[in-house]
């Protein structure tokens, strides 16, 4: 497996292989933040196929309560591995480790990530990697369904932090 920073020409392949609706628009937005220097989008590859990704947001988590508690703490956002058959084979861990390496290289003293309160398997993984639960918050986001109707969602999450 190889991990690299997302390039413009990767966006089409990501769109082909990502299983969820709205992925193309989401990756365009992530890539735009990377171009502005606000984020780094990491992609994990098996052969020539993208099998996972995450966005390291250098400005940190959007939730005000998290920013207040951890000012300047970069966030690993949108971590995902697919297809499901490839989960639990080390891809997520490799993406997190690369995000940590990049954050340390930039002089960050800690890195964090948000996890939904009802995702105990992901929390367990982050705990094993050294992340500790810190701030409960609501992750507010929106998406458009196939009919073009906008939906707003608020997920109950916990921000977990690891010193670097
Ligand atoms: C969570 C996730 C990113 C971890 O990546 P991964 O490549 O599967 O993780 P690794 O192989 O490095 O580590 C394995 C651990 O990940 C966790 N994990 C595995 N599958 C998972 C799943 N479907 N959902 C949540 N956590 C999962 C478990 O703790 C697992 O340990 P175990 O095999 O001993 O139970 C990935 O499983 C995934 O995309 N899950 C669905 C989406 C999700 O929950 N994203 C997390 C957002 S915070």
UniProtKB/TrEMBL annotation:
Domain N-acetyltransferase: residue ranges: 1-164
Keywords (A to Z) from UniProt: Acyltransferase, Transferase
Acyltransferase in keyword set: yes
Keyword Acyltransferase: yes
Coiled-coil annotated residue ranges, if any: none
PANTHER family: AMINOALKYLPHOSPHONATE N-ACETYLTRANSFERASE-RELATED-RELATED
Protein name: GNAT family N-acetyltransferase
Organism from which the protein derives: Streptomyces spirodelae
């Amino acid at each position: 497996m190889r991990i690299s920073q997302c390039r413009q020409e990767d966006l089409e392949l990501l769109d082909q292989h990502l299983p969820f609706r709205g992925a193309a628009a989401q990756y365009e937005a992530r890539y735009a933040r990377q171009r502005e220097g606000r984020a780094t989008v990491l992609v994990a590859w098996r052969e020539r196929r993208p099998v996972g990704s995450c966005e390291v947001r250098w400005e940190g988590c959007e939730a005000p309560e998290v920013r207040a508690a951890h000012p300047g703490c970069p966030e690993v956002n949108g971590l995902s591995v697919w297809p499901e058959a490839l989960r639990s084979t080390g891809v997520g861990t490799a993406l997190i480790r690369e995000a940590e390496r990049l954050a340390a290289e930039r002089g960050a003293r800690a890195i964090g990530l948000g996890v939904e309160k009802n995702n105990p398997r992901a929390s367990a993984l982050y705990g094993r990697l050294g992340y500790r639960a810190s701030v409960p918050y609501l992750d507010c986001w929106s998406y458009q369904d196939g009919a073009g109707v906008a939906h707003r969602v608020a997920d109950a999450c916990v921000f977990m932090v690891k010193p670097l």
